[in-house]
């Protein structure tokens, strides 16, 4: 490649600057992730799972994988597990719950299949200090619950997340599941680095996350959670974890993530092309939430500046990623022109091969934390590279389709307007408040500062 310095050198300056920035940024994240430490277990815990934890699981189609997940939750000895489903699924899910633990698992119903409505119904039926939301296929490490509770010893912590790994649906991972595993490895690095640097998180993942009940019982939260509209007219059902994370930030609560083998969870992913539909839904939710955080609510800039910077970086990431093949394409074009008439000296195939070697080497290095555990997945690095470019294009597409709020991979979701009406009927919301959907405004006063001290802390043990 040094031979190209005989040609028009400024052509390669943008390429070099982008590459230097991207990998310097990655080294910073890796360094911070390595310096991160999880919260250790306290000698005398304030919160005990058997008295202080309710697990809420919103679902409409839990299958046999629910049994394995439920057994893993029960190892931590929570006080209660609430399964929230639609009325038509009460019978099958009650039978499923009875086959696992009829004493500690209770099944409740809502009129319509709407995740936020289901979650809010679970919140209203909770009597413990801590709520843990979990997907119906999230399999916990045996020690996950005590390690999550350890973070709540800091009374300013309102929400806690965990590290995640992929559990294959079949006997072995498909390429789609490996791609998901690659993404989760990168995510684990991102959340540990941001937690270490400024204590913030882009998102407390809805697969499993714990919150103080007093925060979620707030009528303002319950109303905003079930009346969340994009641009004031497109009601949101997914993106609940993004909403919860932003609520922590805008209302003065800290967050933390326990990223360690003791608090790891396994979750299944779509083992086929439907994984791409999942990613599209997540990407739209990320766009909507990050734009709100950065430009509407704006608390993130002063409370978690590093997280704000990562959000800004992700806004431009598709363009910087696509700049690489665009510049290579230009070089290849110039290489096909005779050097006497302004072309480059190096053959086009040399440029392409050099670029492919560079891509494979750098992407493999980026995935080393995953490949140390599963070296056989190195054969999927080319698929990861192709997926990266597809994702960049899809992210741009998602930006222009933010009005699409359908779930995409989940059948049976009811009418969101009817679900909102159901939520209003169960909360005693006044007519004036019902006419005010949650937009992007947040209280300037931290929520925990508005509460009496006895509501802020759990009962001492």
Describe the structure.
By secondary structure, the protein is of the alpha/beta class. It is 51% helix and 11% strand. It has 20 helices and twelve strands. Strand 9 and strand 10 form a beta hairpin. The longest helix is centred in the last third of the chain and has 31 residues. The N terminus and C terminus are likely disordered.
N/C terminus separation? 66 Å
Tally the helices. Answer: 20
Q: At the third CATH level, what is the topology name of the domain at 40-274? A: Spore Coat Polysaccharide Biosynthesis Protein SpsA, Chain A
SS content category: alpha/beta
Give the second-level CATH assignment, the architecture of the domain at 40-274: Alpha-Beta Complex
From the spread of the alpha carbons, the general shape counts as elongated
Looking across the biggest beta sheet, what order are the strands in? 3-2-1-4-8-6-11
Helix fraction by DSSP (H/I, runs of at least 4)? 40-55%
Please give the largest β-sheet.
Answer: 7 strands, mixed
> How big is the Rg?
24 Å
Number of strands: 12
Keywords:
Spore Coat Polysaccharide Biosynthesis Protein SpsA, Chain A, disordered N terminus, three-stranded mixed sheet, seven-stranded mixed sheet, 461 residues
What's the structural blueprint in terms of helices and strands?
Elements: H1 13-35, H2 49-52, E1 53-58, H3 65-74, E2 80-86, H4 90-100, E3 105-110, H5 115-124, E4 130-134, E5 139-140, H6 144-151, E6 157-162, E7 164-166, H7 175-198, E8 208-212, H8 213-216, H9 219-226, E9 229-230, E10 234-235, H10 240-250, E11 254-258, E12 265-267, H11 274-297, H12 299-303, H13 305-335, H14 348-366, H15 368-371, H16 381-399, H17 416-425, H18 431-434, H19 447-450, H20 453-456
Parallel strand pairs: 1-2, 1-4, 2-3, 6-11, 7-12
Antiparallel strand pairs: 4-8, 5-12, 6-8, 9-10
Helix pairs in contact: 1-7, 3-4, 10-11, 11-13, 11-16, 13-14, 13-16, 14-16
Keywords: Transferase
Protein name: Nucleotide-diphospho-sugar transferase
């Amino acid at each position: 490649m040094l031979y190209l310095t005989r040609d028009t050198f400024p052509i390669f300056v943008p390429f070099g600057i982008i590459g230097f920035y991207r990998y310097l940024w990655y080294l910073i994240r890796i360094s911070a992730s390595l310096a991160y430490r999880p919260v250790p277990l306290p000698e005398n815990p304030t919160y005990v799972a058997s008295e202080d934890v309710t697990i809420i699981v919103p679902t409409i189609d839990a299958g046999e994988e629910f049994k394995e997940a439920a057994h893993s939750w029960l190892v931590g000895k929570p006080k209660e597990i609430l399964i929230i489903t639609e009325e038509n699924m009460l019978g099958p899910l009650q039978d499923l719950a009875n086959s696992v633990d009829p004493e500690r698992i209770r099944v409740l119903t809502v009129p319509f299949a709407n995740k936020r409505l289901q979650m809010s119904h679970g919140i209203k039926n909770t009597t413990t200090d801590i709520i843990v939301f979990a997907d119906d296929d999230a399999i916990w490490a045996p020690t996950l619950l005590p390690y999550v509770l350890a973070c709540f010893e800091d009374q300013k912590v309102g929400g806690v997340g965990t590290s995640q790994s992929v559990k294959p649906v079949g006997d072995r991972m498909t390429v789609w599941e490996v791609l998901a595993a690659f993404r989760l490895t990168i995510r684990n690095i991102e959340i540990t680095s941001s937690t270490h640097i400024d204590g913030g998180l882009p998102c407390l993942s809805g697969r499993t996350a714990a919150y103080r009940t007093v925060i979620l019982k707030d009528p303002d939260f319950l109303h905003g959670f079930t009346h969340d509209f994009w641009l004031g007219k497109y009601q949101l059902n997914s993106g609940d974890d993004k909403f919860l994370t932003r609520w922590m930030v805008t209302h003065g609560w800290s967050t933390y993530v326990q990223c360690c083998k003791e608090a790891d969870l396994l979750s299944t992913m779509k083992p086929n092309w439907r994984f791409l539909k999942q990613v599209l839904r997540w990407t739209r939710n990320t766009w909507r939430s990050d734009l709100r955080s950065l430009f509407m609510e704006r608390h993130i800039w002063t409370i978690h500046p590093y997280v704000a910077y990562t959000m800004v970086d992700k806004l431009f990431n598709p363009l910087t990623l696509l700049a690489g093949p665009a510049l290579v394409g230009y070089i290849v074009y110039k290489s096909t022109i005779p050097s006497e008439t302004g072309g480059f000296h190096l053959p086009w195939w040399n440029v392409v091969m050099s670029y492919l070697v560079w891509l494979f080497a750098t992407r493999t290095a980026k995935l080393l934390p995953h490949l140390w555990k599963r070296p056989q997945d190195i054969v999927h690095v080319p698929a990861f590279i192709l997926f990266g470019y597809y994702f960049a294009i899809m992210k741009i597409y998602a930006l222009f389709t933010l009005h699409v709020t359908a779930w995409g991979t989940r059948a049976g979701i009811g009418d969101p307007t009817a679900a909102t009406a159901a939520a209003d009927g169960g909360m005693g919301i006044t007519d004036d408040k019902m006419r005010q959907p949650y937009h992007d405004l947040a209280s300037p006063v931290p929520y925990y500062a508005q509460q009496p001290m006895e509501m802020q802390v759990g009962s001492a043990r």
